[in-house]
Amino acid sequence: MKVIIVGGGIGGLATAVAFHQRGWQVEVLERAAAFTEVGAGLTIQPNGLRALDAIGLGERLRAGGLAGPLAGIRSSRGDWLVRNDVEELKRRFGPWVTVHRADLVDLLRAAVPPEALRPGIDVEHVQPDGTISHSGGTCTADLVVGADGVHSVTRRSLWPGLPGPRYIGYTTWRLIAPPQPVEASVETWGRGERFGHVPMPDGRVYCYVMANAPAGSHAGLEELCERFARWHQPIPALLGSAHEQAVLQHDTHELPLLPTYVAGNVAVLGDAAHAMTPNLGQGACQALEDAVTLAHAVDTLGVREGLQAYDRTRRPRTQLIVRRSRQAGAAAHWTSTPLTTLRDAVLPLLPNRLFARSLTPAYTWTI
């Protein structure tokens, strides 16, 4: 049996590993010239680690150093709005790991046979029968998996009449600051903007910034430094220590809910199926879950029945996470002074268990 995977990012490579371990012939088509990742930091949450455990890679990632969940949310002045019981979250759900995205891609890529990786292939069209037209000709397989991101060619090929990704109203910057002491992972909310910092095992600090902005707008590091100069420390220090070339900016998109993740002998997963806001940090984790669930279902039940089982299992769960993620970040992007003042007054009064309960559906997944 052969599977062709369109897209060589985290979801695509995890899919390749999962099927290769089950004895399938695997081929991964990637439009970039090399299998690598340009992004910054990435936190793999307990459910994502369990997915990596299912393909034998969880312990190798943990060996690089454990991290903790979000310690809480602060105001731009530094007041605590939400404080999570970090030790209780780890006890209930398991460990977190923070890595550079490129390190996770390297780990997954090393578990795939080199001859299965085909960079520099631009996929043009995917048919439900498993036929793929691409820059090098055509190919076919028993199963095709579209793991080709938010602007997925696979998704557009199968469902050309469905709406594409929509801009959510804010843009995101990501960067890694040089080593410096910071407290545990913290997110800070202002009016229509927020800043998060996550310590990495090697002392560097992964930072992300989100701000309301027109689609396609651009701002560099100097503008970010000015924008957040009066926010609490260590935010100005982190931005001040970064290098312009370390800053990546991308508009934030969400994918309207699809009626199905499968068509014929083809499935979509990860951002190609359910691109979501980064508010819960679940994008990569859900792609990892997709990969191991799909391989298990198809290898156990056969292609057609396995695809239906994958869709029944994954679509309700991932679409729930999409909705939860959108809701989780909405209040951070309010711009009304009365609303943000009310938000900052009410959030500290809410019980911690309320926030823990909202996270439970994401963290408790098992294969």
UniProtKB/TrEMBL annotation:
It holds the Pfam family FAD_binding_3. SUPFAM superfamilies: FAD/NAD(P)-binding domain. InterPro entries: FAD-bd, FAD-dep_Monooxygenase_BioMet, FAD/NAD-bd_sf. Keywords: Monooxygenase, Oxidoreductase. Residues 2-325 form the FAD-binding domain. PANTHER family: MONOOXYGENASE, PUTATIVE (AFU_ORTHOLOGUE AFUA_6G14510)-RELATED. This is Monooxygenase. It comes from the Bacteria. One of its GO terms (molecular function) is monooxygenase activity. Gene3D superfamilies: FAD/NAD(P)-binding domain (3.50.50.60). The keyword RNA-binding does not apply. The lineage of its organism: Bacteria, Bacillati, Actinomycetota, Actinomycetes, Streptosporangiales. It comes from Nonomuraea longispora.
